[in-house]
Predict the 3D structure of the following.
Amino acid sequence: MGQFINLTAADGFIVPAYVAQPEGKARGAIVVVQEIFGVNSHIRAVTDRFAAQGYLAIAPATFERVQPGVELGYTDTDMTTGFGFKTAVDALPGSGVLQDIQAAIDYAGKTSGGKVGIIGFCWGGLLTWRAACMLKGLSAAVPYYGGGVTSEDEIARTPQCPVMAHFGDQDHWIPMEGIEAFKKAHPEVEVHVYSANHGFNCDQRGSYNEAAANTARERTLTFFASKLA
């Protein structure tokens, strides 16, 4: 089990983050970026699982600048609420929430003494892609079904570290033509497409796909093991 700590972003903002420590010396660190539902039980479980694999894992609360203490489930009402918070974060001036993610990366690298990777889901997948392109201190990035990643503006970005991306071919938020455009523009990115829907990794959602989740997880662990060694 992990615990919440406070990080300080470059502008002085205090952002809570859930941290899970590995047993013994960390083999590196992984920043986990939430969906639009907050650092809820699912995101904490993902963070704990990375710690069990030997990584220091940290999940910053990326809604904190617009709404403290968000922890939602996966009902339609939760979806609407979370989307509203996401919209508010997207409207923040300057680097906005990216500086909170940078604070998590900095903490992870300093505390673990090793290389840092980042992984995110849904909206967190988009933030993970932006982090790979815009932030410092990352050695690997893994966005899962990042909403918006396949837009023209996002495709135009250039990652500064190795990236593995996971998508579902039944995802109505991310059409296959967008995924194909992303793949064509970024042959350096290792892209995997599964017979699955949006949110296939989350075992608390109706779209959970165990086979796809397990395959993506094994690929992700192998990717991190090679890039964070």
About this structure: The helical segments are 41-52, 76-90, 98-112, 123-134, 152-155, 176-185, 210-227. The longest strand covers residues 14-20. The chain is about 40% helix and 20% strand. The chain has one domain: 3-227.
